[in-house]
Automatic annotation (TrEMBL):
Single GO BP term: alkaloid metabolic process
Name by which UniProt lists this protein: Tryptophan dimethylallyltransferase
Originating species: Colletotrichum kahawae
A Pfam match: Trp_DMAT
Domain of life: Eukaryota
Top-level taxonomy: Eukaryota, Fungi, Dikarya, Ascomycota, Pezizomycotina
Amino acid sequence: LTVTLSWNVGLKRSKIRVGSEPIGPLAGTAKDPFNQDEPEVVMSRVLRHAGENSPVDGELWEFFKKHLHVDAKHAHNICSKMAPNEHMTTNTISFDLEGKHLVPKVYFYPIPISLLQENHAGEIITDVIGQLPLNLMPAFDYIRNFVYHYKHERNNQNILRLELIAFDAVRPTDARFKVYLRTKETCLARVEEVYTLGHTLKGSEIDAGVDLIRLFYLHVLGLSAPEEDLPRSMHRTAGIIFNMELKHNSTAPVPKVYIRVRHYGGTDLRIAQSLGSFFRAIGLRTLADTYVDAVQRAFPNQDFSNTIGRHSYVGLSYTKDGPYVTLYYNTMTFSAGNERDDSGKLVGPAAWKQRHLLD
């Protein structure tokens, strides 16, 4: 089980989210090549232990599993088409530590099914959204139309991609659906264009969100010129990510942008100090005064002046309550490999039989 932590902060409240990638004992083998078994175990437990008044519901999980999971028998076919170091897992699951009931947010990565069907992930996501027994299309059409025109104006099918879909595991008509897009273009002008879906999303909250992004670029990334790109990175996770939130009967999507500060922000100390300036600029004064010391205390064995990567992403959006900032942290906790139990028996990875993909 791999775990990531995130902290949502705003003017009125904050919350912690724990994200996980459940990994089963046969993940990566011929029996479970795309790690689909353990998420099924986790969701079964969550549904089984949901309290009487819990909003947790399994209908959407079953729907997306039916459409986006693949049978293990197709593994060789899929893997033969897969790019090196491609994301192999199908699901991640996160939980907000808020309220009485833990409601899972489930993420589906459609890479295996897209390779099996020889279709783009964006087309797979579009097709699945169209089959949901919900009214998501008025809001989703904003996204679909913008992505189509954005690609064709630049004559580049890979410049902006739909990569991922997520949902709250609650009653479908109450759920939030999030469609994630990635672009390698990093200048402020392109980020604003995608955030507003070509300026088709309008209103005071959208305008305030654009101002929030500009402040982040200035205070954290050190850029103010609209066409100036961030430093070039060839890493698979480089670029800018957006999610567009959809709900049943919503008339337009709600945007959020994620910036991979580990690639563009320098050391963790520099990022923490820059975030302090950013927090002050957006009115989070207490956080501005305390953030650098607080985040270093959270990682007491790390010298932030030398580390890169503890700060992973920063998410930015604007709601009716004001700026909404999400800080993602990479715990980078690894096994030494030779752990032993109380009797001295080797129990760490050194004791495991080594397996390889599709062995």
